[in-house]
Amino acid sequence: MINVVVSNDDGVHAPGIKALTQALEQVANVLTVAPDRNCSGASNSLTLTNPLRINNLDNGYIAVNGTPTDCVHLAIRQLCEHEPQIVVSGINAGANMGDDTLYSGTIAAAMEGRFLGLPAIAISLAGKELTHYETAAHYAVKIVQGLLDHPINSDQILNVNVPDLPLAQIKGIQVTRLGARHKAEGMIKTSDPAGRDIYWLGPVGAEQDAGPGTDFCAVAEGYISITPLTVDLTAYKQIDPLADWISKI
């Protein structure tokens, strides 16, 4: 059996990580290491000024007082008894599509696995009610098995978004690109009980680039979206034009 590291950003007690771990345990040795609280939106942040502590839970999971990136790094570098073959992050409570991937701790956990040399998958359940985690877990197992037989480039991860539908209603799988949203709405200003100003992030922007071929479109039509994401953020097409005008400064 293969060795798999599982993590997430919703926290070690989230229903998605339980569904994912239980499904993968049918085909793999699973080490589940996740934040001890919800860390949604943590992106690739690391804990640098405080020590990390672990808590071994009764169900065998390990809770960490750190970020999703901390969890995967700690799992691979310190906690794994056997060399893992793959990292799987999720199942996230909500979609990670388009621009949202920049902020996602779910994506970041997968990226940390890739930074440390392992193939990695981020998987999210897209919808409002979020009841069909078993559907996402079913496909997570299939994609893990497929990725091991058909590896992708060493600078990439797979970002998977599964519609919140019963398994029988999934229409299939589409390989997609990231869509895009309009800019986010303004922040919400209110007051705490002492009358001091406090601020909350406003709603995310509406879908802007959501046509055929995008992750938004695939999920909306009842398909699972799989988008290969590159870890290298370099805009290669801009290197020569940028060098040209920089040379004139």
Describe this protein's structure:
Strand 6, helix 4 (133-149) and strand 7 form a beta-alpha-beta unit. The chain has a nine-stranded mixed β-sheet, sandwiched between helices. It has a two-stranded antiparallel sheet with strand order 9-12. It has a two-stranded antiparallel sheet with strand order 10-11. The model has no long low-confidence stretch (mean pLDDT 91). It starts with a strand and ends with a helix. The longest helix has 17 residues, at 133-149. The protein is globular. It has six helices and 13 strands. The chain has helices spanning 15-24, 68-79, 105-115, 133-149, 215-220, 239-246, and strands at 2-7, 28-35, 54-56, 62-64, 86-93, 120-126, 156-163, 173-175, 180-181, 188-191, 197-200, 207-209, 224-230. By secondary structure, the protein is of the alpha/beta class.
Number of strands: 13
Radius of gyration: 19 Å
Give the N-to-C terminal Cα separation. Answer: 58 Å
Shape: globular
**Strand order, largest beta sheet:** 3-4-2-1-5-6-7-13-8
Q: Could you report the average pLDDT, rounded to the nearest whole number?
A: 91
Question: Quick recap of the structure?
Answer:
With 249 residues, this protein is of the alpha/beta class. Helices cover 26% and strands 27% of the residues.
Strand and helix layout:
Layout: E1 2-7, H1 15-24, E2 28-35, E3 54-56, E4 62-64, H2 68-79, E5 86-93, H3 105-115, E6 120-126, H4 133-149, E7 156-163, E8 173-175, E9 180-181, E10 188-191, E11 197-200, E12 207-209, H5 215-220, E13 224-230, H6 239-246
Parallel strand pairs: 1-2, 1-5, 2-4, 5-6, 6-7, 8-13
Antiparallel strand pairs: 3-4, 7-13, 9-12, 10-11
Helix pairs in contact: 1-4, 2-3
